[in-house]
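Note to self: keep these together.
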Amino acid sequence: MTLLSVVQAVADEVKDTRPTGVVSSSDPTVQLFYRLANRVGKALMKKVAWQALRTEKTFTALSTETQTGILPSDFDRFVPETFWDRTNKFLVTGPISAVQWQSLKALSYSGSERKFILRGGSILTIPAFTGGEALAFEYVSNLWAESSGGTGQTAFSADTDVSRIDEELIVRGMKYCYLTDEGLPNGAAAQDFNDYFDDVLSNDQPTSNVMVAADIFSGTSTRHFGGAPFSTGAGDLF
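Structure:
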């Protein structure tokens, strides 16, 4: 579905007139639909590490605390527990909080378990790498939309743009937001969105337990992070 067909579907749902164009339209309702399409798309990108938006970054460590110029231009956030030193086969823990980082710095932490923080657009590690290690992590891209030619985008900007997130989910989210913004009954729309959100999420995300290095070496099978958050309701998304 293109931006135009998404907006037309929402117009059908709320019994409004189908527009023939979106981005260039001066109709206030169509302009609202356009804003809602981008609002819902971005909210869904922020909520879940959708498989279509997950990507991998590999790089070689610098012999310094600060790894500059590493974050990709489309970086939104790390996928937890995916940052590995592949050379030494160690998980790099983080991102840790500013409080944890400053406490480690104050204590001159030099343990074998490296930790990292994201600050000022750079990755900082403690202890620092010696340099030359092969590093990798997964992250969520902020390019949830794309042009008709396949170029990733942070928002819809043309009627022919498409979404990398399930378009029907965007349609149902837009309907909920529209009814809410207009002060109209939205209970059924919220339930419809939540049910579909759960279905899309369960199909998109793995359901098996995921173990990390600490689980293997400690002999436990504790699940740290599976990548699949619980649905908490349309109101929490928008």
